[in-house]
Amino acid sequence: DGGITQSPKYLFRKEGQNVTLSCEQNLNHDAMYWYRQDPGQGLRLIYYSQIVNDFQKGDIAEGYSVSREKKESFPLTVTSAQKNPTAFYLCASSADPQRGYTFGSGTRLTVV
Amino acid sequence: GENVEQHPSTLSVQEGDSAVIKCTYSDSASNYFPWYKQELGKRPQLIIDIRSNVGEKKDQRIAVTLNKTAKHFSLHITETQPEDSAVYFCSTRGPGATNKLIFGTGTLLAVQP
Known about the structure:
The complex is a heterodimer. Chain A is built from no helices and eleven strands. Chain A is mainly beta. In chain A, β5 and β6 form a beta hairpin. The radius of gyration of chain A is 13 Å and the shape is globular. Chain B is globular. The chains are: A mainly beta, B mainly beta. The A-B interface holds A 2, 31, 33, 35, 40-43, 45, 48, 50, 56, 58, 90, 94, 96-98, 100-106 and B 6, 9, 32, 34, 36, 42-46, 49, 51, 89, 91, 93, 98-106.
């Protein structure tokens, strides 16, 4: 599946709940990213990590948290502080700044 | 911070016609410009990229041009086919030593048979 796997494909969250989106890659890429996609707004960066045990906030980090304990894994937690979490979430990885990203197939999160 | 503007937001062409999507960027230090195609409900896929030491790059029916002086780059698709229908995103590498990409807002291309 392109070497980067996101799960689940669909996720439903109740008000006040935290949920965690999984992203795993077997490409041996150092850098990993989380983007949020909303209609008409393109891809907005939530968090990124260039190396294990280190990560940086992106443009819209409020209400989200991440960890990078292993090179292969970069899970994203959507907390109850995120007031409008319904969106399509894309994880990506990169080995080289000059080679672009490989994207996962995405998780569609809906608040019910 | 770095900003990428993309136009048009929607584009409808007849099969066989050409399509052009344009992007402008703000950071003159940007040196890498990939384009992604995203079909409905699927992941974005890299279709072509260009580096700042090159003015144009072609791959079959797809070409990208870069004007560093004006800080804009464009995607050209010739002899469009229905399977070219998708959302296309331009992007550029952000400033500093990171390799994060900054994306445009996307262009929905519809190729009418």
